[in-house]
């Protein structure tokens, strides 16, 4: 499907972070309040030390006001990320990561690094995973030779990074397939 020129531009990392704000995360509130009704839903009650689930944008706002502690997702651990890095470096396919892992990790490390165990090591592991995945993505793009291909386990940021190139390449490949004469037609030209 051909997209208009204004839709071909990929979202910026900041736009992807904004979109990520709707992801639900757990917080430990540092204040007491009953349920709060917002446009995006009803959240609460907020009673320390009980955990409450809220959108990431609300968790960010409360964290910046020092009203909560953000509980990092299960995948934001040294053990999980070390295992994923080993998979990325030892296997040819991309390992399964949360779809918006890069955006969520950046937000959490920017505003809630004090709530994460070993944040510096997490940053290094995430950087290494990202570099390994980028190398695999480049290999995937080099292997384009058909008007269709399968790409499993790509994440949001990776899709946006390769979207323009990928759609241009697929357009060129499909034009080449249409313009190339079929061998059957040449053999039976009457």
TrEMBL record:
Keyword DNA-binding found: no
This protein's record includes keyword Flavoprotein: no
Name of the protein this chain belongs to: DNA replication complex GINS protein PSF2
A GO-annotated cellular component: GINS complex
Classification via InterPro entries: GINS_A, GINS_bundle-like_dom_sf, GINS_Psf2, PSF2_N
Domain of life: Eukaryota
Cited PANTHER family: DNA REPLICATION COMPLEX GINS PROTEIN PSF2
Domain GINS subunit residue range list: 75-174
Record-stated family: Belongs to the GINS2/PSF2 family.
GO BP: any one term: DNA replication
Gene3D superfamilies documented for this protein: 1.20.58.1020, 3.40.5.50
DNA replication complex GINS protein PSF2 N-terminal domain sequence ranges: 12-71
Subcellular location: Nucleus
UniProt keywords, alphabetically: Chromosome partition, DNA replication, Nucleus
Assembly information from the UniProt record: Component of the GINS complex.
Primary location: nucleus
């Amino acid at each position: 499907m051909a997209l208009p020129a204004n839709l071909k531009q990929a979202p910026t990392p900041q736009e992807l972070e904004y979109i990520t704000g709707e992801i639900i995360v757990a917080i430990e509130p540092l204040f007491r309040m009953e349920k709060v009704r917002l446009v995006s839903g009803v959240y609460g009650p907020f009673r320390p030390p009980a955990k409450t689930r809220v959108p990431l944008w609300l968790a960010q706002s409360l964290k910046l006001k020092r009203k909560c502690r953000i509980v990092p997702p299960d995948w934001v651990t040294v053990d999980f990320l070390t295992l994923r890095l080993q998979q990325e470096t030892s296997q040819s396919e991309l390992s399964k990561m949360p779809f918006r892992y890069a955006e969520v990790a950046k937000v959490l490390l920017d505003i809630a690094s004090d709530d994460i165990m070993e944040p510096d090591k997490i940053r290094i592991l995430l950087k290494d995973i990202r570099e390994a995945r980028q190398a695999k993505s480049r290999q995937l793009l080099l292997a384009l030779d058909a008007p269709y291909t399968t790409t499993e386990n790509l994440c949001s940021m990776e899709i946006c990074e390769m979207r323009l190139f990928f759609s241009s390449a697929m357009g060129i490949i499909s034009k080449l397939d249409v313009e190339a004469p079929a061998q059957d037609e040449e053999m039976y030209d009457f």
